[in-house]
Amino acid sequence: MLRVVRAGALLSMAVVLLSACDNDQPQPQPRVRAIAPFTVGDLAGEVSRTLPGQFQAVDSAALSFSVSGTLQQLPVVVGQQVLEGEELAALDPTSYQLDVASAQADVQQAQAAAAEAETELSRQRQLYQGGWISQSALDTYITNADTASSQVEAAIAQLALAQRNLDETVLTAPYDGSIADVIADNFTVVSAGQSVVQMDAAGAIQLNMAVPDRLSSRMSLNMEVSLDAATIDDCGCVGRIAEIGQALNVADTVTVNVAVIDPPADLLPGMSGSATFRFHDGPDGYYVPFGAVAAGDRPGTAFVFRYDAQAGVVRQVQVTTAGGQGENVLVTEGVSQGDVIAAAGTGLLRDGQSVRLPPDASSSDDAS
């Protein structure tokens, strides 16, 4: 009997030891299922058109002198950044300086003549009061004094004009910006009003383009547009239509200007670019593969599994469908452009399940 008890005890100890050894073994990790991803694309029936254009400053001006003369200084170059009031060009001021000197002499001469006429008038008033001259004689001296005073005013006005012309021999920047073009050559004679430099204001930029009339009729002010710049990788610029021309240009086109929203610092006037316009002609919704949509628990309901990249899981999302096209079904509610959903195998998935994307692709092609 004692031997039986001892044998049972030994057997129990062996079972305990074996169990302890089993617990020390690593437990198998749950399998993370790979899904076939599909990225929700553009709206159904959406058509895009990309057109070329050129970026321009919203405020741009061809600057010129209001007086003529020989260019003596032209220190600016294309692309140079300038500040408001900075000198851009200057004419030879010699002749205008002489005009100012001559006008100053005329003012002094007129003031001297006026002072003399006023002195004489004062003397003649005393004679008139003493009865030595007549009223008509006094009136002559009054007229002479008034004329001399008027000549002083005219001389001062002429001096102001001469000084203004002298000041106009220096061309300054009307605002902060950059030099878009240098039109005139230094040491050449330029006429009043002849363009010397083209200057673009800093800040606001727009894309100017010629748009076929048949497309411009489908555009509207403030319509959002995707923009690209030829010399800026991944510009990612966004704009809104600011102006749609009414007059037809060559080849039945109209001018359309798109204002750039928050332009990057390296986007400059004169750069080539393009704008992508999207026109929606179809139903409201997105096409997804039939295999991505599963029937819900209740009649008339359906759902898809949307991939949550941050958590590494799929979320069950209820959707509304409205018919299909080929191998795709139109989803009108529940998904948005850019969503990644499971394209197949929905019967093997559950809400919150951990999944992974295939190593060779992050998403499949969009549904057409």
Structural write-up:
There is one protein chain. With 368 residues, the protein is of the alpha+beta class. It has four domains: 89 residues, Elongation Factor Tu (Ef-tu), domain 3, CATH 2.40.30.170; 62 residues, OB fold (Dihydrolipoamide Acetyltransferase, E2P) (Beta Barrel), CATH 2.40.50; 74 residues, Helix Hairpins (Orthogonal Bundle), CATH 1.10.287; 73 residues, conserved putative lor/sdh protein from methanococcus maripaludis s2 fold. The chain is 26% helix and 36% strand. The protein has four helices and 23 strands. The strands form six sheets. A six-stranded antiparallel beta barrel has the order 3-12-15-14-13-16. Strand 13 and strand 14 form a beta hairpin. Helix 2 packs antiparallel against helix 3. The two termini are 83 Å apart. The N terminus is likely disordered.
SSE inventory with pairings:
Layout: H1 2-24, E1 33-34, E2 37-39, E3 46-57, E4 60-64, E5 69-73, E6 81-82, E7 87-91, H2 94-129, H3 135-167, E8 170-172, E9 177-182, E10 189-190, E11 195-201, E12 205-212, H4 213-216, E13 224-229, E14 232-244, E15 253-261, E16 272-280, E17 286-289, E18 294-295, E19 302-308, E20 313-325, E21 328-333, E22 340-342, E23 355-356
Parallel strand pairs: 1-23
Antiparallel strand pairs: 2-22, 3-12, 3-16, 4-11, 5-7, 5-10, 6-9, 7-8, 9-11, 12-15, 13-14, 13-16, 14-15, 17-21, 18-19, 19-20, 20-21
Helix pairs in contact: 2-3
